[in-house]
Amino acid sequence: MSHEISQLAARLAKQIEASGPISVAEYMREANAEYYGKGDPFGADGDFTTAPEISQMFGELVGLWLTDLWQRSGGRAETVNLVELGPGRGSLMADLLRATEKFGFAPAVHFVETSEVLRAAQLRNVPNAVHHYSLETLPKAGPLLVIANEFFDALPIRQYVSTHAGWRERVVARDRGNKFMAMPGTRAVDHMIPVDIRSAPSDSVYETSPDSSEVLFELTRLLKDQGGALLVIDYGYASPGLGSTLQAVKAHEYADPFANPGDHDLTAHVNFPEIVNLARMQNLRVSGPVEQGRWLQALGIDMRAEQLAAHSPDRADDVKAMRDRLVEPSQMGELFKVLALSSENWPEPEGFADAL
């Protein structure tokens, strides 16, 4: 492995030397912008595999979920825009469109993506997709059906740590060996910590994601004004907790988040209660969260797996393995949660009878 310092690492080191430590959020933002901007990290040959890359069943069931919601809304005559945030290679959208088109549901597709490398891959899978760099340029007329699959986990988080002197924001500095390291900052931030956890033991970590809140505030406003629904699928927690969830993945293995910034994916658990609170502020219907495994089973993944296995008996074991990876609690089924937000005048979405 090369020990040469990357341009991003050199720039961050220079910034820290000149102006002092930076927040974990700034470090994460810079690192992920570099990481996603330089290549395709998905699949067996990349650094990690998302649900759509595991099996076509995932995208097909999301497509059927969307179709059912659209049909029960009256198959509205006005233009419905289908939006995906951070769509990876476009695999999820390609799979779900095959399912929706069978029922005459072929909405205009919009991708919110900043990486030029991934944009090119997305257009190979969904040639008619319209790209956006932000939510600001999304259509202003007609309902929006928005998908955020493993999107919010990659948005920057701020971390606060309890010390003997009170709460401090966790910042990134350089140690004597010129390696990046996390440490408590010097400014007191007790006023930013919820009252019920301010007395937590020393070294406790509390996380927030202002970037996620900003995106969600805009999305919930759009849904309130234009109608539609947002489907969030991600790993996270259904009740607030303490502890650092920041992690890095490289070549399908966990890595040090503070080594080689921009060389691996940085993520953190999604705070689902915060999403729920923001939705209720806009008077949106909240469905879930439920565990991904239960949601997929409610939508019929077991039946779909049986169909695929019967159609290709030689692949029956592979189909079962893919189904298990998506559904079983010991794999993605429990850690990953599913949450839907919808406008009051839209029907209640399916699959959320067992809400957590």
Topology:
Elements: H1 7-19, E1 22-23, H2 24-37, H3 51-54, H4 56-72, E2 81-85, H5 91-101, E3 108-112, H6 116-125, E4 130-132, E5 144-149, E6 158-163, E7 166-174, E8 180-188, E9 205-208, H7 210-226, E10 228-237, E11 247-250, E12 253-255, E13 265-267, E14 270-271, H8 272-281, E15 285-291, H9 292-299, H10 301-311, H11 316-327, E16 336-342
Parallel strand pairs: 2-3, 2-5, 3-4, 5-10, 10-14
Antiparallel strand pairs: 1-7, 6-7, 6-9, 7-8, 10-16, 11-12, 11-13, 15-16
Helix pairs in contact: 4-5, 7-8, 10-11
Structural class computed from helices and strand pairing: alpha/beta
The CATH level-2 architecture is identified as 3-Layer(aba) Sandwich
Number of strands: 16
Q: How much helix is in the residues? A: 25-40%
- Quickly count the domains: 1
CATH level-3 fold name: Rossmann fold
> Which word captures the global form?
globular
> What is the CATH C level class, in words?
Alpha Beta
Mean pLDDT: 92
Which consecutive residue ranges, at least 5 long each, have pLDDT under 50?
A: none
Give the topology string: H per helix, E per strand: HEHHHEHEHEEEEEEHEEEEEHEHHHE
Biggest sheet layout = 8 strands, mixed
Total helical segments: 11
Question: What is the percentage of strand-forming residues?
Answer: 15-25%
Give the termini distance in whole angstroms: 44 Å
Rounded to the nearest angstrom, the radius of gyration is: 21 Å
